Amino acid sequence: MSRYYDFFCPVKLMAGEQALEQLAGELMTLGASRPLLLTDKGVSASGLATLVQGLLAEGGLPVMACWDEIPADSSTAVVEQIAVRYRKLGCDSLVALGGGSVIDTAKAVNILATLGERTCWITPGPAA
Predict the structure, then answer these.
(1) Rounded to whole angstroms, how far apart are CA atoms 88 and 75?
(2) What's the start-to-end Cα distance of the chain, in Å?
(3) Strand order of the sheet with strand 35-38?
(4) Which pLDDT value is given to residue 66?
(5) Which of 14, 33, 42, 113 has its CA 20 to 30 A from that of 126?
(6) In this structure, are residues 39 and 67 in contact, taking their beta carbons and an 8 Å threshold?
(7) Are 20 and 52 in contact (CB under 8 A)?
């Protein structure tokens, strides 16, 4: 059994006044040029998605599209649809704007987009 473990998880948190205005520059530093914005209907209806799209565009990073149809309990079907759209638009980055479902969906889309797969494969666990 190995006694050595290595975990590297760089995280940069930005908060406070003008934090959103810094987002475009931070994404471009990471090489982003064609982001896809992911959110849900509630956040979109609040106007926050439009605000973020505007701030990214002002910062020189226009959003390729906004997908605001992520349900509270997302599914592999939703992930697959978004991944297809991501590839079709030639996106190179994701911006997740919302809660856990939006963030988890974005992580799964990232995996599909990175691996170039077309579908999610879920191995069912043992029957309860």
Answers:
(1) 20
(2) 31
(3) 65-67, 35-38, 93-96
(4) 98
(5) 113
(6) yes
(7) yes
